[in-house]
Amino acid sequence: MSQTSGKSFWTTLPGIVTASAALLTAIAGLIAVLHGQKPPDTNQDSSTEKQLQAQVDRAFSEAGSVITATENLEATVLDSIWSPRANVPPDRAKRIAQERREIVESFDSTLVVWQKEREQIALRVTYLLGTPSNDPGDSWRRVQAAIDSYITCVKRCYLECEKHEVYGSCGCGAAKESAWVSLRSFAKTLAHTTLPNSPR
After folding, report:
1. Of 176, 162, 175, whose CA–CA distance to 80 is shortest?
2. 97: number of CA atoms within 13 Å, CB side?
3. pTM for this structure?
């Protein structure tokens, strides 16, 4: 038997490398256990980030669409040119009436989508980002409330205008500004929020 054959496996170079690797693995596992963390799952993190981005895009898209549709509806009560009784040539009156119908239809359809999507967005944002101490879904609900107040103000004004044929300011400027401010605040909330279990 040769001299090297009598050596223990753990004293050879391959044995030392194997032992070192095993020791490092054990230390890494111990650190993870002590800190109560699981090894990062990069695939899961990537999937969650994509879901979150989709929900954020959806939130801003729906909010922007309904605010714009409400602004367009409000514009039809600011000027008497939109009145069916406006003193304009017949061909122009026909175009104005058609445009007004399109604005009202667009508002109605956008409002239906908004009412359907708004709470779903809040729940998804809470699911993806909510923690016991911080829930961005609450910030989104403040956006909902501000936008709904603006919508209510303009709808009331529009109905009054239709009823009494009185055109002018709706007095909804503060409500509209509040809607945009709440949306910007929501954006800031997201900017300072990280995914659960992500490094902070």
Report:
1. 162
2. 11
3. 0.71
